[in-house]
Amino acid sequence: MKVDKKLQARLQTEVDTAFLYRRVASMEDDAEISSIYIEMARIEELHKGKVMEKVRAIDKAATEPLPSARARIISKLGGIFGKNMILGILLEAEKSISQATISKKTVSGEKVKGDEDRHVKILESLDHLSGDRVRKMERGHRNIGGNALRAAVLGADDGLVSNLSLVMGVAGATQGGNAVLVAGFAGLLAGAFSMALGEWISVKSSQELFERQIEIEMEEIENNPEEERQEIILLNRAKGMPEAEARAIAYRIFADKDNMHTLLVKEELGLNPDDLKGSAWEAAITSFLLFIAGAIIPLAPFIFLKGQTAIATSVVLSTVALFTIGAAITLLTGKPLFKAGMRQVIIGLAAAAVTFSIGKLIGTALMT
Fold this sequence. Notes:
By secondary structure, the protein is mainly alpha-helical. It folds into three domains: 5-130; 145-205 and 280-367, no CATH class; 207-277, no CATH class. Helices cover 82% and strands 0% of the residues. It is built from 15 helices and no strands. The protein is elongated, with a radius of gyration of 28 Å. The relative contact order is 0.10.
C-alpha cells in the first residue's frame, strides 16, 4: 500500500523542524537558550518517530527522509542573515501546525486539550529574551495606562473624522442647509451605536474565549499534572531562568494546591483571571460617549448657524479638534507634538475636502 501524501508531508515537516531547531541551537551563544532549542528538537524528533511508525505500518520498507532542500536552504540563509530568520520561519510553522491540529480535532469531534500551541508559546517566550532589557523595561513603563488613552483618543478621532466627512459632504450638496443637521445627527447616532456594539462584542467575545481557555487548562492540569509541570519548566527556562530555578518554581507552584490553578493560568496562558471582570457594558458605553464627543464637534455650528458661516465655523472647530487629537497621540508615540498635530489636521481635512467636493458635484447635478 502506498503511503498517503499528507502523512509523508507531515513526516517531512517533523524532520525539517527538528533539523532547523538543532541548527538554531548551534548558532545560539547562550548555552541555556541553546539547550531549550535542543530540547525542542528532541520533542520534534519524538513526533517524527510516532509518524514514522504510522508510515512503516503502511510500508515496512520506508526509510526516514533527510531534511528537505527547503530546510537546507533556510539553514544556509540563516548562516548569512542570522538565526532570527530561521526562528521566524519556525514560529510560523509552529502556528500553522497548531492551527491545523485544532481544526482537525474540531472537525473530527476530538477534544481540544489546550496544549496544541505550546511550542508557539515557548518560541514567543524565547523571543522576549532578545534585545536590550533596560529598553524593554522603559517601554513597559511608558505603556502604563496607554491602552485606555489610546482607546479614548481613537474613539474621539473616529467620531470626529467620520462625521466631519459626512457633514461636509451633505453641506457641499445643500450649501449648508437643514439637511446637514438631519444627516449629521443620523451619522452621529449610527456611528456611536455601531462603535458601542462592536466594543461590547469584542470584550464579551474575548472574555468568553479566555474563560474557555482557562477551563481547558484546568482540565489539562487535572488529567496530566506531570506533563503540565514539564511544560512550566520549559516555559520558565524560555523566559531566561536557569534550569534549577525553573524546576524549583514549577514544583513550588504544584505544591501550592490552593493557588496552583491561578498561577498556572498566568504562566501558561498569560492571563490574569481578574482581567476577565471588566464590564462589556462599560466598554460599550464609553465607546458610545467618546464617539459622540468627537462627532458633535463638526455638527454643532449647524445647530446655530446656516450656510457658508456654519461650514467655515465647522471647519475651524474641527481643525482645532484634529490638532488636539494629534497632539494627544504624541503621549503614546513620543513624536514631536506639532508634527503629529498637523498630520492629523491634514488627514482629517483632506477627507472632508473630498466628501465636500463630491457633495458639491452631486448637488450641482441635482439642480440641473
